[in-house]
Amino acid sequence: MKDVNIINGTVYLAGELRECDVVVRGGKVVELAAPGTAPDTPEQVDAEGLWVLPGLVDAHFHCRAPAYSEREDFESGSRAAAAGGVTTYFEMPISTPGVYNGEVLNSRRELAETSSLVDFGLYAAPGTLDWGDINSAVEAGAIGFKVFLHAAPADRLDEFKGICITDDVQLYKALRMVSKTGLVCSVHAEDESMIQAVAEELGDDAGTGPEAHAFQRPPVVEDYASSRLLVLAEHVGVRIHLAHVSSGFTAALLRLARERGVDASGETCPHYIAFGNEVMEKHGPFAKVNPPIRGGADAAALRAAVKHGDMELLVSDHSPFTVEEKTVGFEDIRKAPSGSPGVEGLGRYFLDQVLIGELPMRAVVDALTINPAARFGIEAHKGHLFPGADADLVLFDPNGSATLSAGESFSRSRNSAKMWDGYTFRGQIISTWVRGECVYKEGEILGRPGFGRMVAPKRCQVDCGGV
Ligand SMILES: [Zn+2]
């Protein structure tokens, strides 16, 4: 564990940038010293002219290991995370098998602890409706639960074990059970019956081109799911979280629910704000994500929600697939899987928006750091740089610029990372630090596989790396 002083930087602390030196001992921030007054240590890092930001906490991430190592694994995924300034990611429960109990969670933890370069949390799925499964997942240190409201793809049932709940009675029971654990339930809100209704209505006119994806999953698919979910959440009292919000109506529903006292939060991703329908024409299946990218009034509503602090989390939904898997979608967009590797664009895009004055700094940085940490119960050590926190940080040059190139991505599915290929961002990530260790610097990965530790909510009773 490193002792290091990060000196002469401008440090982000509770919404403000302050000139101070960050004193790191044993991998923790122990003191914020006036410039030039940090106690001596052999290693000093000069951050003159740089912002010192808390490391990003990405609450929506897929590497899917041990399944599909040709797409990604904990090592390659966490290299991409490090390059994107992400020091903790929460891996979704989709794998082989899906994480539906403590035993599966523990085996994934073991795998991640031998291969991840940065820290991680693991979601579990409550859909078996079995108290033994749910309690064991909580005891094993699940960061939260995840539920999909649409059906699992027919050829991937094992991966989605316990994750997809299309029946309202089962959903009611699952939310009730999760509410008793005190953990957050993140929900992929796309309603299966609405997907079916739209498909039936479109019939032979459903289309096969890239532009058809958005028609096949119009906002009603998401809004209908979100509305019944929020109504249920109010009644059940579960801590609910809407994953990857793409619709302006859902953003408004979320605000309304919260005004009524529902313990609800939401997240959106860079691609829902940065792009419109043109991205499908440009990149075809490589831009196919669920829910679809809508652009227009929806993107504007999401931007406003982020600006006003109504969309508390910003996440990547990093979702790697191989070029071969994606390419079949050029024939018929319905055949391509949904998802795109994007963790390297998450912080870069939103910090670019801060630098060009489109979004306020505090709303953005908090949504990338302290908000996810606090929502999921790891804020004692993650998401900020006050003394006592893990020394997870990003040195960021606000006067630099960076252009992402798919070929230089650290994701194993780099060649399908087309959405951000060639995109130039204001500002530049210089280096990323996890618990005082530099894991990424100026285009190079310095971290080592197996350094990453699991984080778990503080109410969890097991030993999870001190959190
Ligand atoms: Zn996802």
**CATH homologous superfamily designation of the domain at 56-375:** Metal-dependent hydrolases
Helix tally equals 15
N-C termini distance: 16 Å
Class of secondary structure makeup: alpha/beta
What do the pLDDT scores average to?
Answer: 95
Low-confidence parts lasting 5 or more residues at pLDDT below 50? 460-467
β-sheet strand percentage: 15-25%
Radius of gyration (CA) equals: 21 Å
CATH architecture of the domain at 56-375: Alpha-Beta Barrel
CATH class of the domain at 56-375: Alpha Beta
Rough shape? globular
Explain this structure.
With 467 residues, this protein is an alpha/beta fold. It has a domain at 56-375: Metal-dependent hydrolases (TIM Barrel), CATH 3.20.20.140. The protein is 32% helix and 21% strand. It has 15 helices and 19 strands. It has helices at 74-83, 102-115, 131-139, 168-181, 192-202, 212-216, 219-236, 248-259, 270-274, 278-283, 296-307, 323-327, 343-355, 361-368, 370-375; strands at 4-7, 10-13, 16-19, 21-25, 28-33, 44-46, 51-54, 56-61, 86-91, 119-124, 144-148, 184-188, 239-242, 264-268, 313-314, 393-403, 424-434, 437-441, 444-445. The strands form three sheets. Strands 8-9-10-11-12-13-14-15 form an eight-stranded parallel β-sheet. The protein has a seven-stranded mixed β-sheet with strand order 3-2-7-16-17-18-19, with helices on one face. A four-stranded mixed β-sheet has the order 5-4-1-6, with no helix packed on it. Helix 4 links the parallel strand 11 (144-148) and strand 12 (184-188). Helix 13 packs antiparallel against helix 14 (361-368). The chain is globular, with a radius of gyration of 21 Å. It starts with a strand and ends in a 22-residue tail after the last strand. Mean pLDDT is 95; it is low at 460-467. It binds zinc ion. Zinc ion (ZN) binds next to loops. Zinc ion (ZN) is lined by residues 60, 62, 92, 317, 319.
